[in-house]
Amino acid sequence: MRGSPSPQKLILMKGIIKLYIIVCLILILPFPLSAETFGIMRPWFGPAGIVVDVIPLDDLSPPGPPYLMGDFGTPTLCNGVTMSQTYPMTDVPVSVPIYLWSNRLVKFRVPGWIFPAGTPEMPTLASVQIEQIIDPMNTSCDGNTFSIDAIGFKDSTDFIVRNTPQISSLYPAKGNWGSIVSISGKGFWDTQEKVYDQEEIMDGSGNMDLVCDSGEKCTAYGFSTYVELSASNDRYRVSTYADPWKDDQIIIKLLKDSLLDVHTGKPVPDSEFYAGNWQMQVITDYFKDTNLNGQHLMADGSIDLADEIIMRDIGPATMFTIVTIASPYINLVIPNPVPGGDTATIIGSNFGVSGVEMAGDGIGNDNGICENGEKCEVKLWNKYHTGFKRPVVKTWSNTEITIRIPTFSAPYPIKRDVQVRVPGGTKPNSNYYRLTIIRPGTLP
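Request: output the structure for the sequence above.
Response:
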């Protein structure tokens, strides 16, 4: 029989085995690479509840593209994701829910009730760190992890925490076809829709520089906000909005053929916008622009079905009442006669709280609301009712409209029939009221 190994040989053999195990760990196990490892977030913006993808990349020396695919390692109890507010104030990191952990992808959810509301001018920003285990064989997490930064590339390196859109008030809170409604609230952001520039998908098939080059697989992300009305089983989406779009105000136009029936995909018939209480909501879609056409909400109010909706953030509902609108009626126009270029007041009933601006005529701000100095739904017809002029409106209320009388080249006096139109009424056009226009500068 051969004798037992000497103590010196045993020590040497243990050292060789230990060195062999260390080499195997380096070559086989997903050992974290270095401080140059980082992750890219997609999307890098959204509200509480949105699920964010993080892809690991390795930045070589010298730093900068091209990058290599990184490795998050296998899931363990020591791995984690944290978020910490960085602007407009700083706060301590908090752990966030993890939806998926794999070597090439981590998915986490932005927590609720953690971050304060921000605005486009002062957005709430939060840094994101991926806590990766150093030694998977070590069951103690204390001192066995290190942080990898997860960053965005287009707007902010930190995650932009958006608000859920919320309505605080409607003006007016009732109406029908033709109504212009101002929605006040918060979380609407400073633009209705934005699709960010395309990025390389970063799956190793391209040159790994994050830039979308010709022939590469690319992706893009965006958000789109819109308004919907619902009652019973009916759900209508608004497609016509007025400028400017503000974080705290949206102006919608309830014009005929401007509401899309979400269920049928067709414009809402006149009769289907029926009287009663409707729920109005502001909704923001966060999406992946799958077909890379740079658009999510179409002109008719439909949604690009090719887009992958990452999250549909639906704000709380506010009641809007659809009322039956009585036909407008003109009782009197004063003064009558009136010199051309002077002002006259139309007195009557059921004109509505605001007239509808004639958009696209080069006058006014084209926000759809009849305001001082704009042409609206008032006509001065010739005696045969074959042609008309629109006077400039000075003020508009439900019972009085002040207009500036245009001047004419025809010999004075001139007879014109005044008519007011209120879209949405059972009979939207008022009666005619005969007005005599005399030479400018003449006393009536």
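The longest strand covers residues 276-288.
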